[in-house]
Every structure is written in structure tokens, then in C-alpha cells.
Amino acid sequence: MSKLALRGGEPVRTRPFPSWPVFDRREEELALEVVRSGRWWSYTLGEAVAAAKEDHAAPSSKVAAFQRNFAAAHGCRYGIACVNGTAALEIALRALGVGAGDEVIVPPYTFVATASAPMLIGATPVFCDIDLDTFNLDPRRLEEAITPRTRAILPVHFAGLAADLDAILTIAARRGIPVVEDAAHGHGGSWNGRPLGSVGAAGTFSFQVSKNMTAGEGGMVITRDAALAELCESLIWAGRQPGRPWYEHHRLGWNYRLTELQAAILLAQLERLPGQTRRRQDNGRYLASRLREIPGIAPLAVPSYATGHAWHLFVFRFLAESFGLGRAEFLRALTAEGIPASSGYAHPLHRNPLFQQPGLPLDYARFQELCPASEQACAEAVWLEHRLLLGDRADMDDIAAAVAKIYEHRQEVRP
Ligand SMILES: Cc1ncc(COP(=O)(O)O)c(C=O)c1O
Fold first, then answer.
1. Concatenated DSSP letters of 331-384
2. Is 156 in the pocket of ligand 1 (CB under 6 A)?
3. Ligand 1 pocket residue status of 262, Cβ below 6 Å
4. Distance CA 52, CA 65 (A)
5. 254 with 283, same domain?
6. Residues 206 and 298 in one domain
7. pLDDT per residue as tens digits for the range 341-391
8. Same domain, 73 and 166
9. Domain for residue 18, yes or no?
10. CA 184 / ligand 1 centre spacing (Å)
11. Strand 313-318 vs strand 381-385: parallel, antiparallel, or unpaired?
12. Which of 291, 315, 342, 387 is the most exposed place for a label (fewest CB within 10 A)?
């Protein structure tokens, strides 16, 4: 095989991978409809529940239509659209009664929002380590994280791979603790045939630009519980209640509403999601099978309960010793071959400055010992963005060929 690109050889790949976001005339059409209508805002208070009724006329509001369509596509009757995935977590937790002094169990290998959302409503995140095979919350470690103050368990379907909900829900049910699924990576994915986000008391999604569907920003809470949906909706409408006067506020709430323009774009993105999900799944499975043949490359496991991987990220563990190279050198060589990749989270959440401030209710330093798998995940992970999986078979072959080429020439990578 030819010389490494890092050493002046021909890169495996010079063509770009698909760019993200993907959009076409459909997004333009729906967004233009909103612009031209002058209806950039809609009174949708009450719609989350009303629009879910079978005899309800098709909503003319894009937000109401998107809530209904997204929830239905994800196995729930009710959807509450909001400004982003962090807000969705705050809303769901607050609606479930989580507040000051309560504890919420979260994994430390995730975006900060999973832990900061509980903090933003006065609660305390308690970290529970992950399973190194899946990078998802390890149910074997869950019991030891539960205290009398635990009010919610917040597993993440990391990278779009279902968390072990069977085990988590069994423990949660025994202890009477609700489960909120952080499905920010999980659009279109499933667990035992059920859509991610639809299994726990509530599920939350993000439509920030990196996600599998996007309007730049945006979020959603889904639930099967009408009363919870009503409460969530009230919380994003400044504590208002449907049918009551405009300046009557029943609870402390936010203005966390999504706009009609964002909802228009998201309606189009939702139409495209099933096809894109199938493509990511085909390519994800194939790429994992190719990469598994290379020493030191360990794609994350896909357990049988993860019936539909949403592949928000393609993640593998880079085992430096087996590969014969450090991860930073490997990533440099891979990028030079034309394959964009990154090492993901630099450290588990509890090692962020946020958790080292004085005056926090917990000593977060102790999680360094309690969460060794998260430390190892941060040291070994390699992430590929989902847009790479929107390519074709030949694109996957290029990724595998680049990794194999670096393995063959590993002695030459080091300067
Ligand atoms: C796992 C996870 N949860 C929550 C969020 C928060 O979503 P947003 O950025 O829309 O607030 C993100 C966003 O990156 C995420 O990755």
C-alpha cells in the first residue's frame, strides 16, 4: 500500500464526505410558507394534548403539527416542542417534581447538559459509571448511586445506541424512581422495537445543528402521559394554563417555545429521517464489521435490545497497545488520509471545572475513583460524525482502508 499521507503519500481519500445538514426544496417550501403567512408565532398552548386526539383537525400551526408528528413517529401521543435539548431535560425533570435538594442519576460520559439541566433546576447530579462495551450507563452500578434523595434516573442513549433500559427500569420501578431518557442522540432509534424516548416517563431530544435532525437549535419532550404533557406545556408557556386568561400564571415557568420557522424546517427534516436512519444503520453495521478486522479497533457493542441504532456517532475504542500507536498520532494520520475524526469528550463530566467549584453539595472528586470506565472511554474513544454514514458503501470502504493503511504503516507514523 502507498505511503502514509502524513509522510507525503497519496491520501486514501480526497473527495469530501456528505455535508450536514441535508436539506432541499422541502425545507425551503415549508419555511417560505411561514415567512409569507406572517404567522411566525402561534398560540399552541393546549395543543400538545388536543392535537393528539384522533378527531382533531390537522393543526395549521407548524409547531403543533411538528409536535404531533414527531411524537407519533416516536411512539408517544404527546410532544412538547421547546428551544433546545437542555431545556427539554429541565422541563421533563421539573414536570416530574424534581427540584431543590433532589438528586438525579446521570452518566459522566455525555454532554454537560445531562448534568447541568438538573443543576439548573436546583437538583444535584450524581454520576453513575458507564459500561465500557456500550459507553451507556451501567445498570450494575446503579443501585450504589441511589440515595433517599434520588428523584430521577437519566440514562443517555449515547451515540444513538439504546441504553440497557430493561435493567435500569427494573431497578427504577423497584425503588419507585421515574426514568427520563436523554434521547438527544436517538432520533429514529429503538429499544426492543420501541422508539427511543418513548419507554420511560418522558424522553427528551435535541435539534441542535450536530443532531440527526436539526433546525439549528430546538428540543422536544415526548411522553405517553397526558397530565405530564400538560404540565410540560404550561412550564414553557410561563406557567399559563389552556383556556385561562393570558396574564394568569399558575406556576413558575419559562418562555422556552420553539418558533414556527424552526418547526417548519423540522417538519421537513422529520420526513427525511426514516430514509437517513436506514442508511446510517446499513453503513454503521457494515463499517463496524470492516473495522473489527483491524487489530486495536473495537467498535462499540450493539446488544440485542438495541434493535434500531440511531448512529448519531460512529464510535470505536482505539486500543493503543494492540494497534501499536498512540491515539493522538492515529487521529493525525487518519485526518491526513482524508477521514475526519475526533477523540470526543476530553474527560468525564465530573472533571470539568464546573464540578470543581467550592460550595457544591457533593464532592465530585470522588467520582474519579467511582467511574473508571468513563475515564477509560475518554482515553480510548474515536468518534466519526453521522454525516459520514450518509455516504455509500465505497465511502465506508475508504474509512476502513484508511485505518488499515495506518495499521500497516504504524511504524512510520511516529516522527
Ligand atoms: C446527550 C445530550 N443531551 C443533551 C444535549 C443538549 O441539547 P442542546 O444542545 O439542544 O441543548 C446534548 C447536546 O449536545 C447531548 O449531546
1. HHHHHHTT---B---SS-GGGSGGGGSTT-SS-GGGHHHH-HHHHHHHHHEEEE
2. yes
3. no
4. 10
5. no
6. no
7. 999 999 999 999 999 999 999 999 999 999 999 999 999 999 999 999 999
8. yes
9. no
10. 6
11. antiparallel
12. 342
**pTM as predicted:** 0.98
219 lines ligand 1 (CB under 6 A): yes
> Could you tell me if 250 and 369 lie in one domain?
no
Mean pLDDT value across residues 211-237: 98
| Whether residues 241 and 157 fall in one domain | yes
Domain shared by 257 and 285, yes or no: no
Atom of ligand 1 nearest to the CA of 110: 1
* Residue-wise pLDDT tens digits, 5-23: 999 999 999 999 999 999 9
Q: Are residues 353 and 205 in the same domain?
A: no
CA–centroid distance, residue 111 to ligand 1 (Å): 6
CATH of the domain at 33: 3.40.640.10
pLDDT beyond 90 at 192: yes
Number of domains in the chain: 2
Q: What percent of the chain has pLDDT over 90?
A: 96
Quick one: which atom of ligand 1 is closest to the CA of 208?
Answer: 10
Residues 90 and 224 in one domain: yes
Q: Give the structural domain span for 402.
A: 5-13+273-413
211 is catalytic: yes
How far apart are the C-alpha atoms of 101 and 104, rounded to whole Å?
10
With a cut of 60, say whether residue 122 has pLDDT above it: yes
Final residue in a domain of this structure, among 270, 301, 326:
270
The CATH number that applies at residue 349 is 3.90.1150.10
Specify whether the CB–CB gap between 245 and 44 falls below 8 A.
Answer: no
Say which of 3, 53, 211, 405 is annotated catalytic: 211
Rounded to 10 degrees, the C-alpha dihedral 396/399/401/404 comes to -130
**Cα–Cα dist 407/50, whole Å:** 58
Q: Is the pLDDT of residue 1 over 60?
A: no
Q: Using a 6 Å cutoff on CB, does residue 190 contact ligand 1?
A: no
Domain assignment of residue 205, yes or no: yes
Report the nearest-CA residue for atom 8 of ligand 1.
85
Q: Is 31 close to ligand 1, i.e. is its CB under 6 Å away?
A: no
**Single residue among 270, 295, 326 that ends a domain in this structure:** 270
Instruction: Return the SS3 of 260.
Output: helix
